């Protein structure tokens, strides 16, 4: 990375502390530039680079890399970083910034750069990251890996279930994604829609029954299983009974 770009990124990261900073490196003719972007994540310890900023950067030049900061931690990529790097098909750079008690100002603690290598998060045991590694992200990955079906993705604002203006994302979009409500389920592959610690239908899982995961055959069997990813837990298979049945509001089935 060119020195002037590295210094521009560090200045941005330090200025935005304690929120994560994010931006893009672009090729502007035969030169490279760092384009600072907005972080619109509700939680400043995370980042969400808006699509409009990416489009604006593309008007400057070809996007070469994605950059963001880590706040009060090291620069090693999280599981969500690795997955998002694959999705962008671009190199990523992380700068770590932090401030200890007694420090007058935050400082740069380290750097880490990486690029796509084909990484995929496991279906069971992945960490939670809303917008990618969340309950709908797990449903999409299950359908792609286990059933070879590519489901639509949907923008989902942070904490949407507590914001009336966001609507009912699951209830408003399951038909657009190719699903219909059923009353004879659940069957293998059906999506179970639930109200998880909310007054709204904000959570989804996939019914597995007694079938194993083809992508992860080494896992121990779970009878009458549901695959799901509830915040802030790791993704897991649970017995679909008791609490999970109690909070179920609808079962939907994919129609080709």
UniProtKB/TrEMBL annotation:
User: Per UniProt, what is one Pfam family of this protein?
Assistant: Prok-JAB
Tell me the ranges covered by the NlpC/P60 domain, including all copies: 88-255
Highest taxon of the source? Answer: Bacteria
Is the keyword Ribonucleoprotein in the record?
no
**Residues covered by the MPN domain:** 1-120
- Keyword Membrane in the entry? The reply is no
Name the UniProt key words of this record, in alphabetical order: Hydrolase, Metal-binding, Metalloprotease, Protease, Thiol protease, Zinc
- InterPro entries annotated for this entry? JAB_dom_prok, JAMM/MPN+_dom, MPN, NLP_P60_dom, Papain-like_cys_pep_sf, VirAsm_ModProt
Cross-referenced SUPFAM superfamilies, in alphabetical order?
Cysteine proteinases, JAB1/MPN domain
Q: Which residues form a coiled coil?
A: none
Q: Which family does it belong to?
A: Belongs to the peptidase C40 family.
Q: Which PANTHER family match?
A: CYSO-CYSTEINE PEPTIDASE
Protein's recorded name: C40 family peptidase
The species this protein was found in: Alcaligenes endophyticus
